[in-house]
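Our consortium's second objective concerns turning raw sequence data into structural hypotheses that experimental partners can test. To show how far this objective has progressed, the report includes one record in full. It was chosen at random from the queue rather than selected for favorable results. The single chain below, 428 residues long, was entered without modification.
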Amino acid sequence: MNKLSTSSPLATSMYDTVVNQLSQTMESLGMAPDMRRILAVTNNEIIVHFPVKMDDGRIEIFKGYRVQHNNILGPYKGGLRYHPTLEINDAKALAMWMTWKTSLAGLPYGGAKGGIQIDPRKYSIGELERITRRYTYALGDNIGPDLDIPAPDVNTNEQTMAWIADTYMSTKSPLERSNFKHVVTGKPVGCGGLAGRDRATGFGVYLCLKLLFKSWGEELAGKRFIVQGFGNVGYWASHFLINDGALLVGVQDAHATLVNEQGIEVEDLLEHSKPRLNSIKGFEGAQEIDSENFFSLGCDILIPAALGNQITAENASLIKANVIAEGANGPTDKEGEKLLLARNAVIIPDILCNSGGVIGSYFEWLQNRNGEIWSIDEVMQKIEKKISTAFIDVQGVAKEKDVDYRTAAYCLALTRIETAYKHRGIFP
């Protein structure tokens, strides 16, 4: 089916996808089998069960995860997601992608991921706060500003990060607490957050598209695009693309699929979705169609910005877009990618396309460590420089080796990690 899928089988397939990508790249690079043995496994897999008192007085038990894949380049870094289908293989795959992503972006980080197996829509704000704080306490010293730095992901936000920071800091002595503010990134600006962090991922998606079309001698003005997922990434990517003259003609989330050939007003759609728990259903500025027809919409650009493995062998042949910008992590599976590449579609891979978020997180981390406060203009310039450098590097390798952008991105990321292992060796 072509509808936005949230079923649990994604967990295993996402892990299979990332391991397959790793194996293919390492084989093409001729890397030593020892490197594959190291990178194909995670360093630590943490599962916690913890009780929380609900508003009605009953006790509910929750299951949380934190997977730490590799830290050869620096502290573990990666988001926390709240989703009912989250499982350990899900977190393992996402943590591995974070290792490649931080390496490609040239950041001094490794990869991690985690979260709670929960549907946050079913809980009150007070319950979510208690769940978040109890999860943080359960993780204990498995996270820390120089060990493992969480950030927002699916269904988490700056408020979630503020609760985590406050809980973690409260476990430290009063004299030390201010030294642990950067235990998480993606915090509200008022408690150590970075101006512009909210739009960093979506801005990165937009910037990669702008750089791609510029390299072809084209502009974004007049390009038609569709977006799967209207969360933080989907909204901000659309916002920047529209400001550059592109036309949003289709949007899909878990509740509805909307189409307007004349263009969907993204700010109006945002205002519609806010009071409806971010659902786009019922928006009057577009026509609602069957979800199965989303990928077959006529457009130049497709931005999958929802969950993993949405583009598969079942629907890839329906896609009209010639450019796919992966705003989500792992939205394209192996067979779906084969079909797209066979017809010369260009896929800007997730570890490049959505790296704006972790790049923004890096600058927030630096800002907290150094006791500085940067303006939003300074921040956006820093993010643009990092992403532009990574994009140009990937495009250069793609041309030099005559490979697709994902293979080129993996070549760069894995080579940097291999170099670090060669220099440091294996202890003892």
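The partners drew two points from this record. The radius of gyration is 21 Å. The longest strand covers residues 59-70. Both points have been shared with the crystallography group to help prioritize constructs.
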